[in-house]
Amino acid sequence: MVSVGAVHSVVYVLLLSVTLVLGGDIVHHDDVAPIRPGCDNNFVLVKVPTWIDGVEKSEYAGVGARFGPTLESKEKRANLTRVVMADPPDCCTKPKNKLTSEIILVHRGKCSFTTKANIADEAGASAILIINYRTELFKMVCEENETDVDIGIPAVMLPQDAGLTLERHIKNNSNVSIQLYSPLRPLVDVAEVFLWLMAVGTILCASYWSAWSAREAAIEQEKLLKDASDDYTNTENVGSSGYVEISTIAAVLFVVIASCFLVMLYKLMSFWFVEVLVVLFCIGGVEGLQTCLVALLSCFRWFRQPARTFVKIPFFGAVSYLTLAVTPFCIVFAVVWAVCRRASWAWIGQDILGITLIITVLQIVRIPNLKVGTVLLSCAFLYDIFWVFVSKWWFHESVMIVVARGDKSGEDGIPMLLKIPRLFDPWGGYSIIGFGDIILPGLIVAFSLRYDWLAKKNLRAGYFLWAMTAYGLGLLITYVALNLMDGHGQPALLYIVPFTLGTFLSLGKKRGELKILWTRGEPERPCCHIQEDNQSINSHH
Length: 541
Hints:
Its main location: membrane. This protein is of the alpha/beta class.
């Protein structure tokens, strides 16, 4: 069990977290680096498998240059070629060693990248590998005043550690050979299909749970009113204490608070800060898993009695015996995930904790009417676009993408994401979706089903089917855009909000129910008339 204050803190942290769909971009578009004929390649990642004395060793990743011919995309078509060290090492002057179609390995020096490539090309090299003086990769471009950019060999930059390893083997008189190729990503990876199903399924489950809770509360109120119970005044808010309604002001403040939180993540991103996020995620995950397990087990008659029997515990209040039984399992589950989160299978535990937390949040947090939902999603729409695209003008990189990937933290992204490994992608990696892309539109989808059930509308005449379909289509369009942009991160709410919110508003206006949806958020129910009749009778007495 976790204290209510801690749980709510985690809920708000997660509500204000990343809203992004990412597929692991291998093509890096750059609007800053100059482009002209002969210098217009995309910056693509390059696989560099190595052989030392005929034995296959490590595989490194490099990045292709803006200039030179493009690399082969198929491994079987890439030639296995011997690597030699340049003399002088920076290759700013003609090499002293004679080359016969070898790949030349050079250091960054005082001359430009194109100068090195031209010299290596004229000396007879088949390709040039340039060692960066840092562990990260650097985009090799053409200088504005350079004219000789008709280069006939491919150029690839290697990170410092990879380049120095190859240099050390060459200086030890080992025979070093490599392949250079840049495999293409599949048009659609199965990870994206499963991620889509996970997102849609999570909202579906959360919506039905939220609607069922609202209907049970409404039935309970109707019973009390029909019996003209004197206890009505003490129970009129039954069901309301179990959830939190978002106000219009809170919806507007979302942008400010979320932006501050995102900038804090961006500025403080480090190993220790990710560790703090992991702890917060585990606290929320324990609460989410516990809540979902108790609700699920309560459906079976063997567990109904423990679920309805309570014991009072200091600081936590009344707690059911079933909750006491499942909590240790939930804590152990979260701790095991936290300890083993770098393992190849850890994404399964992260997704289980994440999904149960999202379902719990959508059960606890609700929008009272369409007005609040419109304000919230409109603000989130602008927030997403700003921090994915516009933030590049101020920070020289997309703040949202940097935070989602966990750059500079030494970790494989922050935990507030659902992720699935890209099984059929030669580059590996993960397809991810931020919690915000599920929670924020999920609030309005859940609201639509609550309205339908309270208004006793069937599936076709209601709003839920349309809202759910619109969300699924919006997320589908997001993945289409993701693949068209070669895996470069996309602000999912840019596509989801117009579909979901636009469909809801248009349908409400067409049916003449927009005013009720916009202000009251729930239909007229018999209980309301019963309450008025009771008040009228009491006034006569």
